[in-house]
């Protein structure tokens, strides 16, 4: 048996592949275009492993996807492939439209053609699982109830709008063509192999480098934090037993303001890797101009996936964040390799304007 995983050299995708092959001998076909956040070094431990087959390419390449489906006959497609950074979508939305909307459309078209020629037993077993985000639901006020699967879509950035569109396409291909789809909408992930443009790896990287720790606005934007390996276990469970056509929200039950997260990271670094001058890392915190349309709060109600599929996260924020900091301390070579000159130039552009 084989599964096709798109975007599997990225942060969540590579963690999914590593965890999948740690507990299964089922072959993974890894399709990734290796944009700036895709990194084969994430999967270096699989070098020489016949269960992992990497193909460089885009989900928008219909002919390539069709060829891979015909050649490998996967029983499932798990779609992680996406442009996923809000700030980048504000500066350059077209990449997000092309990958998240057009790319998902072309992937669905290739999968639809493949599915249509399967025999009955294979059709009954086949699944298309689309990995999405809680950002499609918009922003919550402080006292609003958390997002459920029936919450109205209200995306506020080019990124979240493009993901909302991809979710709608997946739903439409189920209702129009009978494609056996599943969708997961997750909260903010953190953990190993996270490209250091997002809050947690950026703060760790900058803290150790003696650089400012940039906080947008007042730092009171609230997010629900989900340890990436918990997210991967949720996806495996949805793939195994989720009801066709259904959406499952995946959250960590860990709502935290961004400023609290940064203070927690600073305290852990003070303990595990103290500054040479004996000062606290929190002294490096600096406040920068808030980004346009910054959603104030996201929160996931993950009751449905627990009730229907028996899944809940294994990590608390306290256990997961300590594991994450330790991983970055133990893997400074990985960090050095991914923080290229182009990455540093982008950081300067994004966070250079201080209050």
What does this structure look like?
- There is one protein chain.
- This protein has 355 residues and is of the alpha/beta class.
- The chain has a domain at 2-192 and 226-255 and 296-316: Rossmann fold (3-Layer(aba) Sandwich).
- Helix content is 44%, strand content 16%.
- A seven-stranded parallel sheet has the order 3-2-1-4-5-6-10, sandwiched between helices. The chain has a three-stranded mixed sheet with strand order 7-9-11.
- Helix 6 (158-177) links the parallel strand 5 and strand 6 (181-186).
- Helix 1 packs across helix 8 and helix 2 (62-72) packs parallel to helix 4.
- The chain is globular.
- The N and C termini lie far apart (55 Å).
- The mean pLDDT is 93.
Q: Can you summarize the main beta sheet?
A: 7 strands, parallel
Number of DSSP helices? 13
Number of strands: 12
Placed side by side, the strands forming the largest sheet appear as 3-2-1-4-5-6-10
In terms of quaternary structure, the protein is single chain
User: Helical percent range?
Assistant: 40-55%
> What CATH architecture of the domain at 2-192 and 226-255 and 296-316 do you see?
3-Layer(aba) Sandwich
Write a compact overview of the structure shown:
The protein is built from 13 helices and twelve strands.
Keywords:
355 residues; Rossmann fold; three-stranded mixed β-sheet; 13 helices; 12 strands; 16% strand
Please describe the topology of this protein:
Blueprint (H helix, E strand, L loop, with lengths): L1 E5 L4 H13 L3 E6 L19 E5 L5 H11 L3 E4 L6 H6 L2 H23 L3 H6 L1 E7 L24 H20 L3 E6 L1 E3 L8 H10 L4 E4 L5 E6 H14 L5 E4 L4 E3 H15 L12 E4 L14 H7 L7 H14 L1 H7 L2 H11 L4
């Amino acid at each position: 048996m084989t599964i096709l995983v798109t975007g599997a050299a990225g942060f969540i995708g590579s963690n999914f592949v590593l965890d999948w092959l740690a507990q299964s001998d089922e072959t993974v076909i890894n399709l990734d275009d290796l944009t700036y956040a895709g990194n084969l070094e994430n999967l270096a431990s699989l070098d020489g492993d016949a269960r992992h087959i990497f193909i460089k390419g885009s989900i928008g390449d219909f002919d390539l996807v069709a060829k891979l489906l015909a050649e490998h006959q996967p029983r499932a497609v798990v779609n992680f492939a996406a442009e996923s950074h809000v700030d980048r979508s504000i500066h350059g939305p077209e990449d997000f439209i092309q990958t998240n909307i057009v790319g998902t459309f072309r992937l669905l078209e290739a999968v639809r053609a493949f599915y249509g020629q399967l025999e009955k037993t294979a059709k009954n077993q086949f699944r298309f699982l689309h990995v999405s985000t809680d950002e499609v639901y918009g922003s919550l006020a402080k006292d609003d109830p958390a997002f459920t699967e029936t919450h109205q879509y209200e995306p506020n950035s080019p990124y979240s709008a493009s993901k909302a569109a991809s979710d709608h396409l997946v739903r439409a291909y189920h209702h129009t063509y009978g494609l056996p789809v599943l969708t997961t909408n997750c909260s903010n992930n953190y953990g190993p192999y996270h490209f250091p443009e997002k809050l947690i790896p950026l703060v760790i990287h900058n803290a150790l480098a003696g650089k400012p720790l940039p906080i947008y606005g007042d730092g009171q934007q609230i997010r629900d934090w989900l340890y990436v390996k918990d997210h991967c276990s949720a996806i495996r469970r949805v793939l195994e037993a989720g009801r066709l056509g259904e959406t499952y929200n995946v959250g960590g039950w860990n709502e935290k303001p961004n400023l609290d997260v940064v203070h927690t990271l600073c305290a852990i670094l003070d303990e595990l890797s103290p500054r040479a001058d004996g000062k606290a890392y929190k002294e490096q915190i600096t406040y920068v101009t808030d980004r346009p349309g910054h959603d104030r709060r996201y929160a996931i109600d993950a009751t449905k996936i627990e009730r229907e599929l028996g899944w809940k996260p294994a990590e608390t924020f306290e256990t997961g964040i300590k594991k994450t900091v330790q991983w970055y301390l133990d893997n400074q070579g990985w960090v050095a390799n991914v923080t290229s000159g182009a990455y540093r130039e982008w950081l300067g552009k994004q966070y250079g304007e201080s209050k």
